[in-house]
Design a protein that fits this description.
This protein has 222 residues and is α/β, with parallel strands linked by helices. Helix content is 42%, strand content 14%. The chain is built from seven helices and five strands. It has helices spanning 2-9, 16-25, 96-107, 127-136, 152-166, 174-191, 202-221, and strands spanning 56-65, 71-79, 87-91, 115-118, 139-142. The chain has a five-stranded mixed β-sheet, sandwiched between helices. Helix 3 packs parallel to helix 4. The longest helix is centred in the last third of the chain and has 20 residues, at 202-221. The N and C termini lie far apart (73 Å). The relative contact order is 0.13.
Length: 222
């Protein structure tokens, strides 16, 4: 508001609202300062190791192309505790609203994770996903810009997805890509042992821990 500053310098007392009205009457445009929303991480550095299921998830995007050259994106999500992948969503376009719908489809009426680690992608910083997180009681934990190592779980998962699925198949259509990617996700969850999980699959690891919890609760109650 240069005109307002000049008037102040000359000793004129005039408020901003009147200056804006005069600008509009003369057909002039006002450049309004827009305050950017700050997305602050819950911590600095790598995310703390979760101690239970649905405590902390990680989320990212992977890009690929169909056989005819059309690009598409894959929303990748993984549970940092069990390495279980609840959803892989492929689409030509993704938005914060699309991400929220994909997560709602997985969670249904179940409570969401306490936090989801994400980077500073446009979709993850959108108002739509922010509203989804507020409604679900989930905190979006943003890594520091240029520090993908702070989201190491999803980076490792994305590498496996690309090496074992995307680089192996040529997709004729988005429908075919979705079917093959979903089949890979099921194999990853049900039949893929992980050294970090004691050479159990993600589903076996969850079942084992749930069994141990039931036994411990029975001992304590007895």
């Amino acid at each position: 508001m240069r005109i307002w500053v000049l008037l102040r310098r000359e000793g004129w007392l005039i408020n901003r609202k009147r200056v804006r009205r005069l600008y509009r009457l003369d057909g002039l445009q006002l450049r309004m300062r827009v305050r950017r929303r700050k997305h602050i991480a819950l911590h600095r550095g790598p995310a703390p190791i979760p101690a239970g299921p649905t405590e902390r998830w990680s989320m990212d995007f992977v890009h690929d192309t169909l056989a005819d050259g059309r690009p598409f994106r894959i929303l990748t999500v993984v549970d940092n505790w069990s390495r279980h992948s609840p959803v892989l969503e492929a689409a030509f376009r993704m938005s914060g609203e699309t991400v929220g719908r994909a997560l709602d489809g997985v969670l249904d009426e179940k409570p969401g994770p306490r936090s989801i680690t994400v980077d500073h992608g446009t979709e993850f910083q959108s108002r739509a996903l922010e509203d989804w997180a507020y409604r679900r009681g989930v905190q979006l934990d943003f890594i520091r810009p240029g520090k993908p190592v702070e989201n190491a779980f999803i980076e490792s998962f994305n590498g496996r997805l690309r090496d074992e699925c995307l680089n192996v198949h040529q997709f004729a259509s988005l429908g075919e890509a979705r079917a093959i990617i979903e089949a890979w996700r099921m194999d990853y969850n049900h039949r893929r042992p992980h050294g970090s999980l004691g050479h159990l699959t993600p589903d076996e690891f969850v079942a084992q821990r749930q069994g141990q919890q039931i036994i411990e609760e029975a001992l304590y109650s007895g």
